[in-house]
Design a protein that fits this description.
The chain is 0% helix and 49% strand. It is mainly beta.
């Protein structure tokens, strides 16, 4: 059982940066692949990035490659999303997710655990 709590969202100008954090409670954080999704108003939720539980292999949506970086600190039970060169199109609620299966992040099935979401707003 994992409980996920996101933080770090806010309002930023285009071209700026934000770092999102997601802290997990529970003893099995390091055995879960972690990911980030986002949902903009009127749009479907979309995959942003994921990081494996073992070697820390990282995966990104094409729309954020080269701008966003996912990382994890197993000692702190925390996963991060560093977002640089932000664009107004990045405006969304960002959700942290966790699942034992990395492949879930590009399947039609949702990850097992979700955070409550944090709002990111990028002004032009």
């Amino acid at each position: 059982q994992l409980t996920l709590v996101e933080s770090g969202g806010g309002l930023v100008q285009a071209g700026g940066s934000l770092r999102l954090s997601c802290e997990a409670s529970g003893r099995t954080f390091r055995s879960h692949a972690m990911g980030w999704f986002r949902q903009a108003p009127g749009k479907e939720r979309e995959f942003v990035a994921a990081i494996s539980s073992g070697d820390g292999d990282k995966y990104y949506a094409d729309s954020v490659k080269g701008r966003f970086t996912i990382s994890r600190d197993n000692a702190k039970n925390t996963v991060y999303l560093q977002m640089n060169s932000l664009k107004p199109d990045d405006t969304a609620v960002y959700y942290c997710a966790a699942d034992r299966e990395l492949s879930i992040y590009w399947s039609d099935l949702p990850p097992r655990y979700w955070g409550q979401g944090t709002q990111v707003t990028v002004s032009s």
